[in-house]
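User: Can you help me understand a structure? I only have the sequence.
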Amino acid sequence: VSVLFLLALLGGCLTPATLSPIRYYTVSAAPVQQSGPTHMKSLGIRPLIAARPYKLEIAYRSGPNQLAYIHDAEWAELPSTATGRAIADGIVDSALFSDAGDAMVMARPDLVLTGELRRFEADYTTDPPAFVVGIDGAIRSTPDGVALWQSQIEVQIPLQSSMAERGSDNALTDLARAASEAVSQLSENVCEEIRQALIDQNTTSTP
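Assistant: Let's start by predicting it. Here is the structure, written out as tokens:
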């Protein structure tokens, strides 16, 4: 009996483990539906820096100061990349500046946009649960570092699923939907705040 038990144990150890395939989800931001006034200076846009928890793993908040990750599911690209692209596209599409693009390939832009992705998570501690995206961003002049615009913006989009459902396909599809809406709204809010900052600057500089 002991020999049979040992053989069964060894057989179990040598049997390849069955791994669940990773499910990948995308974030698709809607285009910004606003425009100008156009600032007659160029804007270089730097990549959005991500806070440490927000990589490819899909994060969720399960309690006060508690962050976890959903098993066998990831974002198809880094949240900072998707969010930064949505903001950059919104600024370009809104024609807020005479020229706007990647700061690395622009020859001495007049202004530079920098930012940090501070939240990108499903928050199940709220009622109702929500997907939250938050950034800290600023536009500064390159010669002297004076801020044209600086703000912390956070957007919450309600989820239709609960924490108990978080790993299911339906819940993850809902989460990706809410993340896309949150990024779209964030881009819209960033562009609106920059537009208002340009109006305020023009009003102040007008004799």
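Now, to help you interpret it: The two ends are 98 Å apart (CA to CA). The chain has a mean pLDDT of 89. Let me know which part you'd like to focus on.
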